[in-house]
């Protein structure tokens, strides 16, 4: 789905502007370009839509083997900062899914520690299983998954408490380790409850698109809040006019560039301008932002597939 050969992740197989012109000239794709008009409520009440947490729980129950997503080996080439960082580097993976993002990071940097959250307990169980069976790489005390739905609540204080946020620019802390979902003995010399001191990286890989658009500013603001000053958020998600978007029929449109799959999960398709407005509006500095355009061929039917993703690197100012 996201390409089968590692080299394809880093190529520019076609120009996005050419794809845009083609899509905008195609009458059969016109519904993707129009503003969203909410449907008229039916006279008889319809069953409530599936909650996002329930939808993703059902999704991972169907794909419990963890083979639905392949390991994202392209990440370290796309985001080399993850292997070039210091020895005590901490990463928060938002929406970790089955661990396909965490695995290459754990392999690529032996000293890195990953805290990984997801709204689905089933996803976390799959991720735990995948990360404990990595050949030749020890993940003990390096991978800490915890259940959390960032679209509806704030990050827990053990990631970065208010006291440490206020002192993050003037004081260096040496923090003990975190076991599973609990913080053990996190107290500074003043006796004030402490935390892990924030993280050096936040990774959001195909996560934000699954959040309702109106909740995206909250999610990004929360990511900002647990990053140390000067540190980075690494972003990759579905781009505008990706093949997946163009396959959605009008009935599955839930908003402007926002769609619901048949299993109840959401998918938003980002333009560069929307990503820029969301992250820079939250206070981030844009370092890199581009479309990644990959062409591949479906082996079963021989059809040409043009995939579009958005890659972004953002920094929290000092």
UniProtKB/TrEMBL annotation:
GO terms for biological process: methylation. This is tRNA N(3)-methylcytidine methyltransferase. It is an enzyme of class 2 (transferase). Coiled coil: none annotated. Keywords: Methyltransferase, Transferase. S-adenosyl-L-methionine-dependent methyltransferase. It holds the Pfam family Methyltransf_23. One of its GO terms (molecular function) is S-adenosylmethionine-dependent methyltransferase activity. Belongs to the methyltransferase superfamily. METL family. SUPFAM superfamilies: S-adenosyl-L-methionine-dependent methyltransferases (SSF53335). Its EC number is 2.1.1.-.
């Amino acid at each position: 789905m996201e390409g089968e050969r590692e080299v394809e992740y880093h190529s520019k197989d076609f120009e996005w502007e050419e794809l845009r012109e083609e899509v905008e000239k195609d009458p059969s794709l016109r519904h993707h370009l129009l503003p969203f008009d909410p449907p008229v409520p039916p006279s008889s009440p319809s069953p409530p839509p599936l909650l996002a947490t329930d939808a993703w729980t059902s999704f991972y129950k169907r794909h419990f083997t963890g083979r639905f997503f392949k390991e994202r080996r392209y990440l370290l080439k796309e985001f080399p900062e993850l292997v070039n960082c210091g020895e005590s580097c901490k990463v928060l993976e938002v929406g970790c899914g089955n661990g396909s993002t965490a695995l290459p990071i754990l392999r690529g940097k032996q000293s890195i520690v990953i805290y990984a959250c997801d709204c689905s307990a089933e996803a976390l169980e799959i991720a735990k299983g995948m990360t404990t069976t990595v050949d030749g790489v020890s993940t003990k005390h390096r991978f800490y998954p915890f259940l959390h739905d960032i679209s509806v609540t704030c990050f827990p204080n053990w990631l970065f408490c208010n006291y440490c946020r206020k002192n993050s620019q003037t004081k260096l802390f040496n923090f003990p380790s975190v076991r599973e979902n609990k913080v053990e003995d996190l107290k500074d010399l003043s006796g004030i409850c402490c935390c892990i001191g924030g993280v050096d990286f936040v990774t959001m890989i195909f996560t934000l698109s699954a959040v309702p658009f109106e909740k995206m500013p909250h999610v990004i603001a929360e990511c900002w809040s647990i990053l140390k000053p000067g540190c980075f958020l690494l972003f990759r998600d579905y781009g505008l006019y990706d093949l997946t978007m163009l396959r959605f029929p009008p009935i599955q449109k839930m908003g402007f560039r926002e769609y619901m799959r048949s299993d109840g999960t959401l998918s938003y398709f980002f333009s560069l301008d929307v990503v820029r407005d969301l992250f820079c509006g939250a206070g981030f500095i844009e370092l890199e932002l581009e479309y990644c355009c990959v062409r591949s061929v479906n082996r079963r039917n021989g059809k040409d597939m043009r995939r579009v993703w958005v890659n972004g690197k953002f920094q929290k100012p000092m």
